[in-house]
Structures are given as C-alpha cells and as structure tokens.
Design brief:
The chain has 20 helices and 2 strands. The protein starts with a strand and ends with a helix. It is elongated, with a radius of gyration of 34 Å.
Length: about 375
Amino acid sequence: MKHLVLVWLGIVFPLLAGASTSLGYEEQRDRPTAGGEPVFATEADVLLNTVKNLIDAQDYQAAEKLAEQLTATSPDMVDGWMMLGYARSLNGKYDLSNAAYDRALDMGANPKDVLLRKAYNCRKLDDPRRTRQCFEALLALEKSPEILVQFGAFESATENYAEALRLFTEALEMKPNDLEVIDAITRVEEKRGDSAQLKYWLEKGLAVEPANTRFLKRLSLVYLNEQNYDLSVNYLKKLLAVDPENSGAYRNMGIAYYQLGDKERAKAAFEKVKTFGGAMDGLYGPLADCYRSTGQRTAALAVIQEGIEQRDQEAWLYSVWGKLLEDEQDYDAAIAKFAKAVELQEEPWSGYAKKQIARQEQLKKRAELIAQQKEG
C-alpha cells in the first residue's frame, strides 16, 4: 500500500498507511504522523520553504518572485520580508532589499540581523555614509568583537586605515590574542606600508601560535623582500618544519640562499620545488646557474633547454649557456649565445651579455696568442 508524504520546511513526514487522500485541509493538517507529532503546515510555510530551496538552487529571480507573492499573501510574516530582502540582495537590488528589511524591522525582526544585512547592501551600493550608520547602530546595540572586526574590515576597504586599526585594536582588547583580529591588523599595516608594525604584529601572532603557517609564511616573505635573507631562511625553516611539502617555501628558500651566494643549498631548495610539483617559472635561470657553479654541466644544459622551451628567463639562460661554453674555452660558440641574449632585450641580462661578448673576444685573442707562443 502506498505511503503519502507531506513536505514541511524540508522535513518529510510519512502519513499512516491507508490514510485517505480525501480529507479536508484542516483535517489533514492536524492528522498525527507515524512518529506521533502533529503537522502544522500553512501555505505561507510552504512558500517560505520553497523560496529557500530556490535560493539554494541559485535561482534567485524565481526566489524573489515567489518571496514577493509570499509577502503579498502573508504581509505579517516577518520571515517572508527577510527572505524577500535576501532574494533582492542576491539579485543586486540593494535599495529594494533594504526596503524589505526595514519592513521586517518594523514588524519585530532581530535588529542586529537586519542591520548586518543592510550594511552589506550599503557596501555594495558604494555608500560609505549609510554603511557606517548601520555599523554604528549595531555597536549601539552590542559592542562585540565580531561587529568591530566587520566594521574595521569595511574601513580598511575604504582606505580609512587609522579608523580600521582603532576598531581592530578595540576588538583585540575584548578578545586578547585572537589570531583573526591580529591577522586583520597585519593586513592594514601591510596596506599602509609600515614594515616595522607589520613585523611586530606577525611576531605577536607567532607568540600566540608559533607553528602558524600563515604568519610564518608572511614574515619570511617580508624579510625576503627586505633582502634580509638570513632571517627569511630562519622563518622558512620553521615553516617547513610544520609544512614539509610546501613548494612555495622551498622556492623562497632557494632564492634567499642564491642571494646569499650559497648555490649548493639554493640548488637543493630549487630541486625540492620540482619534487613537490611547484611552479618553476622564474627559477630556470638561477637553477641553471647553480648547476653550472657546482660543476653539473649536463643538468645545467637540461634546465637551460627546458626554460627556453617554456620561454622563461631566456636571456638569463642564454647567458648561463654562454658561460658554460666559456668554461670549455669555446669562445665563438659562447659569443653566439651571448648575442642571442642581447637580441632578447631582457634586462639586466641583455646588458650583461653585451659585456660578456667583449670579454669573450678578449679571452679568444689571449688564447690565440698563447697558442701562437707555444707554436713558436
């Protein structure tokens, strides 16, 4: 025997076997389920649930149309107006969305919920004045770290960094050592270009959680950009201790070691990038140079050819190729490679290659003189 089901707010209630399908609406509504709980599903409930389902399916236009029908037929339903505001917001109708939210507020909706949604709409409308009014009203209702952080994020987005820092700092006073708030402060200091404060707050984050990969990565990058390669390597080692397959960390470590002149360690780090599937763009030149400097000619040539095929750092690679040929005293071939680097017009390597051509010619003349002296 078939079982009938009644859907109410996304929950399926099986009716008792043998239930008549001819019962009137009021009788069906009050009929107990198999579990013994009564079902109270109104038309408005069904419409509201359908609007939610349409939003979940990302059919926002249909959701808005049905929400309008819901508020027209059940104008006293607060959730209906909130859902209409949400659907309109999803469709980019921010002013109309706020109007629906205001209607819900007048009918007793949660003011905090309404104001947060209106603040979002006002941000989308690029209306800083009304956005601030929403956040200020929220703080008048409840001065919570969450609202302070959201307000601070808005001020940061509008480049009002001093106010953003004030709000974030106040949030941190209420919720000490909160890593998300600390991170928000570091983002502002980064935008302001205050390296000293950025490092201070990143260090503070690491004092709270020493193995935090987010702060370790960013602090190592700050020092790398400041050309403080030793400190960069220090934090990269800590990062790799907790994230040993981080190809990006190996990439930056290789760059730091390369700049320190430690080409053996730089080479090892660059090889790890390959091992863990990291992007090699920008590494062909230094890796080829590392192989050449450590006497691995075959490996250097393989990297040179791969980089040229990828059209990455070609002038650098042709210059390294020229140096490999110089090592073999094949000066004519070296001049040809350096000439190719000059043609590519990629500075600083094209300028370097032009100087190398003159050097190769001098080396060639000296070699010829030595050969003549030996013959004589």
